[in-house]
Every structure is written in C-alpha cells, then in structure tokens.
Amino acid sequence: MVMMWDLHGSSQPRQQFSGHAMVVTGLAVSPDSIQLCTGSRDNTLLLWDVGTGQCVEKASVSRNLVTHLCWVPREPYILQTSEDKTIRLWDSRGLHVAHVFPAKQHIQTYCEVGEDGHKFISCSSGFGGEGCEATLWDLRQTRNRICEYMGHFQTVASCVFLPKALASMPIIATSSHDCKVKIWNQDTGACLFTLSLDGSGPLTSLAVGDTVSLLCASFSRGIHLLRVDCSRGLELREVTAF
C-alpha cells in the first residue's frame, strides 16, 4: 500500500493507494501531480488518479521485479529499473512499454532523469568491483549508453545529477554499499572525489538537498548531511548525521 499525506494538514493520510500483491518498491508522481505510478515485486505497474485514489491502468511483465521508477520531466513517460537487468520506458497513455534499453549484466537498482529530460543515469548491483557501475544514457535520440562510471566495489544503490552551479562541468554523484559517495565528471567518467563514510554500513539512497548539500541514507548511522565544498577544488564532506 502507498499512502499520501498533506505536509501541512492532519496526521491522517490524505489518500491511500491499495492494489499491489507484494511490497511496493518504486513510485513516481507525474509532472502535473495528477497521476501516480507505483511498481512492485509482484511484476506490475499501477497508474493511479491522485485525486480519487482509483487505479486507472495496470500492466504486468513476467519477472519484472521493479526496483525504481522515475517520471520524465514534461513528458508522459516513466522510466523503470528492474531486477531482470533491464530498463524500460513506459508510456503512461495506456501504460505500455515504449522502449527497452540494452540489457546490463547486473540488476539495475536505481535511475534518475536529468532536468532537461534528455539524459538519465542508472546504477548496477555487484560485488568486488564486478558490476558496481553507474551508466549515463541518451533518452531522446539514439537511446544508447553514453558513459560509464567505474570505481565502486559493491552495489551502487543510488545516483543523482548535481546542480549545474556547483562546477564548471556537469557532475553526478553515486552512493554504494561500499560506504562511499563518489562525484564524477558526467562527460568523461573521471572520478573527481570520493568520500568514505566509515561505519555507516551500506549506503542506500542519495538525494540533492539544495545547491550545495546532499542527503545520504545508510544502514547503520541514519541520514548523513553532506556538503559540496568548492573553495579548494571540488570536495565533499560530512556535516552531520541524523
């Protein structure tokens, strides 16, 4: 079940969306906030009307254990990663698969679309440096791989585009079960900085906070507030943990 709250309202959920047979592992809200798409380990995607809470479309693909969903800005398309090692682009108009990207060798754990909707990044499971990469893809033209970011030694659980104001070149960040957050040159694949959060356990999620901050979730130490410092080149440091 998925529940939606009003941040400035009561403590009770504003809406509930119940329809999956197993745990919900991905959700994405449409750019106009009218629709919600959810995905599950039951191999299904459900499309919901946010206002009424009613399911308006359902789609199922065999062995498609959903790991993450991301709505493409200003488009009717939804990007989805899966444990079957593929990335699918869904058209919300009828909820059907519009494109399947070339399969990777490992489970695809996460995806994020850039603000302009032209590119996206995904990341892979792995161990001992096998797999453990993030990949930049073209979303608009060739829909092929553009660049890969290799350097983690365990599953890469999250990847994000960083604000353009941070550096002279486009940069991305990744977090991994190897307790490290890395910043990369988006165009060349070069690793620009590595922050080790020792004792944190696997890092499970990464999100942009503001123009200079990141939030990183971990198994053992909660949520880490990280700050990008450009005073002496590009560096990343931990401010505190919650």
Number of helices: 0
Write down the oligomeric state. single chain
What's the total count of β strands? 24
Which parts are unreliable, with pLDDT below 50 for 5 consecutive residues or more? none
Structural write-up:
The protein is mainly beta. Helix content is 0%, strand content 53%. The radius of gyration is 18 Å and the shape is globular. The model has no long low-confidence stretch (mean pLDDT 95).
Tell me the layout of helices and strands:
Blueprint: E1 2-4, E2 15-17, E3 24-29, E4 35-40, E5 44-49, E6 55-60, E7 66-71, E8 77-82, E9 87-91, E10 96-100, E11 108-113, E12 119-124, E13 126-127, E14 130-131, E15 134-138, E16 145-149, E17 156-161, E18 171-176, E19 180-185, E20 191-196, E21 203-208, E22 213-218, E23 222-229, E24 235-241
What's this, in brief?
The radius of gyration is 18 Å and the shape is globular. A hairpin with a 3-residue loop joins β18 and β19.
Keywords summarizing the entry:
single chain, 242 residues, mainly beta, 4-stranded antiparallel beta sheet, globular
